[in-house]
Amino acid sequence: MVALIPLAMFGFIPVVFYLFVRFPPLRAVIISFVAAWLFLPQASYPIPSLPPYTKISAACYGILLGTLIYDTARLTSFKPGWLDVPMVIYCLCPIISQVSNGGSPISPTVNQIVTWGLPYFLGRLYVGSLEGLRQLAIGIFAGGLAYIPFTLVEGVRGPILHQMIYGVNAFEDWGQARRLGGWRPRSIYAAWFDGGPVDDDSRLNCCLALANRDTQKVYGP
Question: What are phi and psi of 176, to 5 degrees?
Fold first, then answer.
């Protein structure tokens, strides 16, 4: 089972390439991000001169390479604007803090760019429109539905799925796993609150669809 971890982590990039071939680029990007966040293991591989290779960097690197290969026109047509200035400042702020403390700004800045700047840039490329946001809402909602069986199992048996699938626990402290006589589902997340964005957004998207008389306007055909 442990051997499945590097296979999943490094095999995810070819999977992203397949998604770009199989689906329109926007849908491929959304599926890649949601699938990586929900199903890739909690693992970290050191890379010289770059931040550690994690589930998020796997998705970002795969999508960026897929865009370069299969959707170059979108990349070359991107035009930055004033809206991007706060993120640029945020990505470069380690330079000031490191220099003022006598440290090297290179590694923290690169880590900031890969961790926050790259996902932001890919989001600007693909979900910077109403159609992109609609597709993203559908993807998050689908991810929430896919996680229902996992949460039901872990609500009864405890947060064991990472151990069952990948052979190692994603965490060591079970002190906060118990709640009201049951268990807090955790699935493949590194922490319980990591599931909040997908779980909460899935419920919100469902409520929006139900509140809309014509659900076709929200989720399309």
Answer: -100, 10
